[in-house]
Write a structure and sequence with these properties.
alpha+beta, Alpha-D-Glucose-1,6-Bisphosphate, Chain A, domain 4, 30% helix, 45% strand, globular
């Protein structure tokens, strides 16, 4: 993610009632059933997993944010039981056409005590050059687009964070 312009950078936390030793965010992410993904937000349409051309694990998520369909192709960049970083060149289908944005999705947990962890869900989105050209062609200043997009994206992240935490918590105890 080389572009320095940022559309949204939001981070929220929620508690997980499970020992850190039982948590494995990458395992959870890459085995998450579609119905469980959908239960984490009304904006979530579907999800699946595949591999990138270079063989890395990829989570494909489809959601509708602010009335626009997004298809996210998250490729695994950092993968530790307590820390997962995914990056995507995401497709957005708007009434004025198809554009791409860069999305950095980072999930982590830190130990609070022997039975509790704090989950952090951070999402950073940045424009591609194509995206900037597209909004300029429409006469939309970047700062205006950013100010209109932020409330939708921030609300979405804030809403899904506690639901992701509960899903990770259930996953931690699935075999017990």
């Amino acid at each position: 993610m080389q572009n320095e312009q940022v559309i949204v950078d939001s981070s929220f936390t929620a508690m997980i009632n499970a020992p850190i030793e039982k948590i494995n965010i990458p395992e959870w992410c890459f085995t998450l059933p579609e119905h469980e993904y959908q239960a984490c937000s009304p904006a979530h349409v579907t999800s699946g997993v595949t591999t990138s051309p270079d063989g890395k694990r990829m989570s494909v998520n489809v959601e509708v944010l602010g009335g626009s369909l997004m298809v996210q192709h998250y490729i695994e960049k950092v993968s530790k039981p307590s820390h997962l970083i995914l990056e995507s060149v995401s497709d957005i289908f708007t009434p004025s056409g198809h554009i791409n944005i860069l999305v950095h999705w980072e999930m982590s947990v830190k130990k609070i005590d022997d039975n509790t962890c704090e989950f952090t869900n951070r999402v950073i989105s940045k424009p591609t050059e194509e995206f900037i050209k597209s909004i300029e062609k429409q006469g939309i200043p970047f700062e205006l687009f950013k100010s209109q997009r932020q409330p939708v994206s921030i609300y979405h992240n804030q809403s899904e964070t506690p639901l992701f935490a509960k899903s990770i918590e259930r996953y931690a105890f699935r075999n017990n």
